[in-house]
Amino acid sequence: MDYFYCPPENISGNSITIDGDEFSHLTHVMRKKTGDEIRVVDGKGTAYDVRLNEIKKKTASGVILKSYKNHNEPEIAVTLGVGILKNPSKFDFLVEKISELGVKEIVPLHTGRTIPSHAKVDRWQKLALAAMKQSCRSYLPRVREMVSLYDFLSEKCIYDIKLIAHEQEEGASQIQKILTDEARSVVVLIGPEGGFSDDEIDRCLAAGYKQIYFGRRRLRTETAAIVAAAMLIVPSV
Fold this sequence. Notes:
The protein has helices spanning about 20-30, 90-100, 120-135, 150-155, 175-180, 200-205, 220-235; strands at about 5, 10, 15-20, 35-40, 45-55, 60-70, 75-85, 105-110, 140-145, 145-150, 160-165, 185-190, 210. It is an alpha/beta fold. Strands 7, 8, 9, 10, 11, 12 and 13 form a seven-stranded parallel β-sheet that branches. Helix 2 (about 90-100) packs parallel to helix 3 (about 120-135) and helix 2 packs parallel to helix 7. The protein is elongated and about 60 Å long. About 35% of the residues are buried.
């Protein structure tokens, strides 16, 4: 069944209205017609089986046949804070893949070794939306505005487990040895090209983060982010 996105404000009772870019995709690309059944997700964890009952010039409406809570979502909420990369296409790839895996929040980080000075948040949010539909998820990952690592550490966010990736084995552990069955929220920090500085590592450890590593082979940022997401999410799906 084809997936389409509809924000919660366009859902009322047993009716649903699709407009904007999703309407164009529905009618001009997928060529859906009145009477067709589709699956609609609200980006907040609920999916709906919908039968289209009216298609106008700029909107399509349908009746909800069935709903599914927490549809195809992992039990654990994962936030990934990642140093943005010099090559924009690599961060595009990163956002797409970790969104498919089930990450709930993506935080572009500005660190001491970050080269770009701006973030393409609108583009990344669109990529996350497409990845949500492609992977049959129901929760739309949130891509935040870029924030400095130290400002992120000062935020009053509560996570069950806080992790920072480091290429050195000394003082670090593997994710599997830290993750507990009771954990429902995890944040993982991944450095940019060149990794985190020693001061950044120390500040994170002082803020309660635990070091993790992915083996003796040095991974690129985008690879490390995908590996971290897979290790945390796939076992809970």
